[in-house]
Amino acid sequence: MKKSKKKVYPDEYYSNGLFEVIRYENIVETRNTMSPEQYEKYIRLYANSQEKIRKEIQNIIIELQNIISNCDIYSLLRMAHSYEVFTNLNVDSESELSEDAIFATRTMEYIQSIAVCIQINEKEEMAEELFGRYILWLRIYTI
What we know:
This protein has 143 residues and is mainly alpha-helical. The chain is flat and about 75 Å long. Helix content is 56%, strand content 11%. The protein starts with 11 loop residues before the first strand and ends with a helix. The chain has helices at 36-69, 73-87, 99-115, 127-133, 135-141, and strands at residues 12-15, 19-24, 27-32.
């Protein structure tokens, strides 16, 4: 019996010069198109930038700790929970979650994990003010 040599065309194709991503129905294929020299340069570039990125993330976490420690933590958690519930309305499965809903859940997790690790100061700022200015959201989103 002869095998059919029917040409199969991809449903989607993407290439940025370094990588290719090809989708055939439910199969996704990736290819590294870099030369060995390009690959070594790429790896060195990211290895050298790791410390800088780690410091940036650490600075954002310290900033978040300062913001959260100066507000009413219970009020902040209630507002974050309300935001999370609001973004998950009419969602039946996880695949239907929007970017906002995922972000709301991550925000709630960040606030909880930071709150258990810090000493809460006097409530100088109210949570409503932080939410209104979006300071907290924007800093968490950058992580």
